[in-house]
Amino acid sequence: MDSIKKKRKPLTSNLITLAIVCVLFAVVFILVETGNATRHMRSMLVPICINIILAVSLNLTVGFLGELTLGHAGFMSVGAYAGCLFSIAMEEILPMALRFPLAMLVGGLVAACFGVLIGIPVLRLHGDYLAIVTLAFGEIIRSIIINLEFTGGAAGLKGTPQDSTFVIAFVVVLITLVVIMNLVNSRHGRAITAIRDNRIAAEACGINVTYFRMLAFVIAAFFAGVAGVLYGHNLSILSASTFDYNKSIELLVIVVLGGMGSIRGSVISAIIITVLPEALRELDDFRMLIYALVLIVMMILNASPRFAALKGKLNYKALADAVRAKSASSKANKGGQTHE
Amino acid sequence: MKKIFALALALMMVLAAFAGCANDATEPTETPVGTEAPEGTEAPATTDNPDAAEPAEGETLIIGGIGPLTGDYATYGVSVKQGAEMAVKEINEAGGVNGITFQLLFEDDQTDAEMAVNAYNKLMDNGMQVSLGAVTSGACIAVSEVSKEDGILMLTPSGSQVECIQYDNGFRICFADPEQGVNAAKFIAENGLATKIAIIYDKSNDYSNGIKENFVTAAADLGLEIVSEQAFTNQSNTDFSVQLQAIAGSGAELIFLPIYAQEAAYILTQAQSAGMEQIFFGGDGLDGIIEKIGADNVSATEGVMFLTPFDPNADEQNIKFTSDYQAAYGATPDQFAADGYDAIYTIKAALEQSGAKPSDSDFNEKMIAAMTEITVDGTTGTMQWDASGAPSKAAAVVVLRDGAPTPYTAE
Amino acid sequence: MMDLIVNLVSGLSLGSIYALIALGYTMVYGIAKMLNFAHGDIIMVGAFTVITTVSMLGLPPALGIIASIVCCVVLGVCVERIAYKPLRKAQPLAVLITAIGVSYFLQSLALLIFGSTQHSFPKIITVPAIEIGGLTIQGNMLVTLAVTTIIMVAMSLFIAKSRTGKAMRAVSEDRDAAELMGISVNRTITITFAIGSALAAVAGVFYCTTYGFIGPYTGSMPGIKAFVAAVFGGIGSIPGAMLGGILLGVIENLAKRYISTELSDAIVFAVLIIVLMVKPTGLLGKRVNEKV
Known about the structure:
The structure holds 3 protein chains of 3 kinds.
Chain A: H1 2-33, H2 39-64, H3 72-90, H4 96-122, H5 127-147, E1 157-158, H6 166-185, H7 187-197, H8 199-204, H9 209-232, E2 237-238, H10 245-258, H11 263-279, H12 287-303, H13 305-314, H14 316-324, H15 328-337
Antiparallel strand pairs in A: 1-2
Chain B: H1 4-26, E1 60-67, H2 74-93, E2 101-108, H3 113-125, E3 130-131, H4 137-150, E4 153-156, E5 170-172, H5 177-190, E6 196-202, H6 206-221, E7 225-232, H7 241-248, E8 254-257, H8 261-273, E9 279-282, H9 289-293, E10 305-308, H10 316-329, H11 335-354, H12 363-371, E11 375-378, E12 381-385, E13 391-392, E14 396-401, E15 404-407
Parallel strand pairs in B: 1-2, 1-3, 3-4, 4-5, 6-7, 6-8, 8-9, 9-10
Antiparallel strand pairs in B: 10-14, 11-12, 12-13, 14-15
Chain C: H1 2-32, H2 39-56, H3 61-84, H4 92-114, E1 119-120, E2 130-132, E3 135-137, H5 139-161, H6 163-173, H7 175-180, H8 185-211, E4 213-214, H9 220-233, H10 238-258, H11 264-278
Antiparallel strand pairs in C: 1-4, 2-3
């Protein structure tokens, strides 16, 4: 009984995540269609979707593979430039309905190729060394883009058709979620998490460590590239300076805040982190100060055992347990601390 | 685990944000610069509803500006904001235009195109009727794309890339990058300042690249020799010892600096301590160099020349602007502040010329049409616009002597 | 040849500043096992303290430097106590994000207090340039080199010989074992933060006297470069941080001079990647044996 429950858990959990995303989409979509959403709100929708894709894909390497990478913005930029250049070249030839999905595919594949190229040297390293090398690659990519002619250099790439819409972005979010969730719950995904938990033990069990590390890294790069294409088609200018290490760090903040290895957490915190600076605009000069404080407080709260206990109590399952048995409080405590 | 709490938090925040947005749409009171606007101003978004017979003297024109107020380039956004604020205050104190008072809303974009578009949309929610585009070129191009659809007048104080004003509703106050490069090369050649030239430019900056490329092309046509091209990026913009040393060994007589004042301040102080004696020549980005370099280092600016439309001491208007600005913000205005100031007065002139009211249904068309008819005598020169949106104005070369700009005189 | 020597000297001077900052990074990493991303911003705070005391209050430069060191030490310890201590048992990434939060916080606080424009830094080191056989070497570079060398030697001795230094090494080796031996881990971590911040203050003074200006975001670039330097030398290793910092400065200057100013950032990072490919734990990093 217990084992069956455990086996089914990831599936239901994934369905809940998808349901949450769909309900949110439906609510927002109705708001937009009925004209109840302000322009400011509407302009945040596509960036939220882009950040969800980026965060979920980064979570694959940071949360599931357990390797800190600081070069996600680099893959995003490669994908964005590839996709935008494709769209510019094909603008007259292909209709939008065909061109845009193709552009996303192109962007994703080019980013994935870079993932392989960079992954070969990078994945020989571990921990902070891996982090700094991915940061270095991200910066090298940016530096090269600025120095190339066909990318528009520092002036930026202009003339990309503005194809990104909320609906398209949402569909891509759904695809990303389904693909990554299925991957994580598959044999491959279990191999990846096994490598995270104990590489040597995984290797001893016959898991091809290099292959699975590369797989996670490349898939993350692919989706970063797709998100980049969406980004590039959302604004009329694409400048390399957007993709510096600060962007990678911002994405990392989203993943860590949402909980490493928790896809739903990534989705939620991507929404928070995208909306928060915009919502704080009222505060003017104090905006970044408050943002920083919120960040620190959230991290400290997340780590505090008392808060975890509180979270455990608020957990619906724990609540049900508490109703059932009086001795449930210790169980709820435990439940709060283990991460998904 | 089931992060009910996290979810609740997220929902609360999203709701709070959206609620915040919704509120803004009805009460645009954020960073109000307009001094005590007359009653009846709380419904500015009346463009959709021209029938609402409002008394003309009660109307408010909402002008929206976007620029970096935080981040690496914050100083430019802050300058434009302060310059524009001052102009709005002056106009309102003088009773506005035909009873119409001005209100300036200014949003931060951290030099990021995406944030600029978000800021633009927020300003539109707040009833913006005239946009100041964005302060930096990249952000401005992104904003121009959206503002084209709204059809409102977009007058960027400082977006210098050509594409910033590619659409019919776009106009600018500053020079375009290509103009500056060509004008600088012409000036150097015509006055025989030098034949061997070195350049230090910011590879990561569009403004700097734009001027530099056009300068190099023009210089080649004019028979000037570029002996050394040295670059830096926004990640290495404090240490110029290597670049200066390479130039010292190249035999250059003049160093062209198509960059902003802050980096130029670094270069000039380091060149001074390295004992370099070349002429330094810059574009309008060098404006404000005396303020930036600080009182201790003013001697390093001796003899520096730059092409600028704005001379703080050019005439009475500029002297008044400079002293008022100093009184209000405790700093000498730079070209960005002057651009922001002129942008507001240009809007005032267009408003007077068109005779339009913010509540008119064809307000945008009238304002845009008026832009090509007006002549504005601003702090950055006398400007007229053609349909392309670029101003025609003269640039003068100033030479810094004892920490003050003086007009260039040929020897 | 002349050219090369001058470039080497300015590279050494820049590199020794990186080394001072990298020392703080690497010590904190070695002992608290965290990447203190806010370390660069401590430099900025130190430099602004000098501006406030020397330029605004008119105190003598020596007092200004002392004030800056004191201020940074207090700040470093406070940040550690308030923001990092509650996270001692949390995963390292959570601490990293908190450090990023602290970094944003310090930057925006400085932006609120001092505004966005850069302030010119008082010239507190006035040593004339010297000429050796036609070579001109700037005075402040020599002072920077001399002082940083002294500090690095002193630091090495302190870590190697003093009781506190030994305690630090013990904590970095095995925190639990050190605690069992009667070493107060919390106290040692606090001391580490204090020393790291003091070094950052000194580095800040040199950085700003060399380049002359200071703004709210001045600290982030040298901070990230110093982080690179620390990893380059092998993070956690004190001689590694010194070597990494100096090499980084020299490589950066030589790449700019002899290869390309446009691609110098990329070249520095490429060298870093190559070194880590050959020596995956940095130049002087210890090879960690994996426990099975």
